[in-house]
Write a structure and sequence with these properties.
47% helix, binds calcium ion, Type 1 dockerin domain, two-stranded antiparallel ribbon, mainly alpha
Length: 93
């Protein structure tokens, strides 16, 4: 396989992954400055791979109890409005 065909295959794989991610709706891509692009699950504020009550508790703790900083603010932004607030904890399924 030539390097050009490897690049083309890589682009096709990347675009396919993006299409899958966008079609799922609750999964996104995040990138902090100087970081590699990574996947996150919306609502999974404690980044354990599942969305449950502990994520709401994690978000509330970070907001009101001076808990640890959120590992991924995009994941904690459950309603995807660009801000992390109490409504995200309430919206966590
Ligand atoms: Ca979680
Ligand atoms: Ca929000």
């Amino acid at each position: 396989m030539t390097s050009q065909s490897k690049k083309t295959t890589g682009r096709i794989v990347f675009l396919t992954m993006c299409a899958v991610v966008l079609s799922l709706g609750s999964v996104g891509l995040a990138q902090e400055e100087g970081e590699r692009l990574r996947f996150f699950m919306r609502g999974d504020s404690n980044v354990d791979g599942a969305v449950d009550m502990t994520d709401a508790i994690e978000t509330l703790g970070a907001l009101f109890l001076g808990g640890d900083d959120l590992l991924c603010e995009d994941a904690a932004d459950t309603d995807d409005n660009g801000e992390v607030d109490i409504s995200d904890a309430v919206a966590t399924p």
